[in-house]
Fold this sequence. Notes:
By secondary structure, this protein is mainly alpha-helical. The protein folds into two domains: about 1-45; about 50-130, Up-down Bundle (Monooxygenase). Helix content is about 75%, strand content about 0%. It has six helices and no strands. α2 runs antiparallel to α3 (about 45-65), α3 packs parallel to α6 and α5 runs antiparallel to α6. The longest helix is centred in the N-terminal third of the chain and has 27 residues, at about 20-45. The protein is flat. The relative contact order is 0.09. Mean pLDDT is about 75; it is low at about 135-139. Keywords: Membrane, Transmembrane, Transmembrane helix. It comes from Rozella allomycis (strain CSF55).
Amino acid sequence: MFINCICWLKYGLLLADEAMVLAYFTSGLFILGLFYGTDYIAKNYSFVNAMHILGLFCCLMSVTLSGSPLVSLRTGNKGSMNYPGILSAVLGGIWTYYGYQINDLFVTIPNLLGFLISMFQIYIIYAWGNRYTKLESKE
């Protein structure tokens, strides 16, 4: 994720796009702060506290990224809900099983939610097909 921020930051610098530079610079700082902050907490306070902070952040990011294509339900454009969602569902199921086997809720819960969200996206793609368009409001 940090490498992604750095790449987009460099791209924004090349474009001289101040908004992009600001967004990815602050995101990169946040991520660095999270990693170094949890390292500091682990060394000086408790490894368990650091693990919980980072685990919760990872869960939040996983669920957010898995659910982001669902925004297309509101816009009526299912272009962001694509067929590779099948792969997301399979991988989410595998990681859910792995998290269950190692008894780690930080692995199990976001991957289970990602699996369910991917299955819902697959349902929308196959059940609605080309009929899925935004309903026009009557004026």
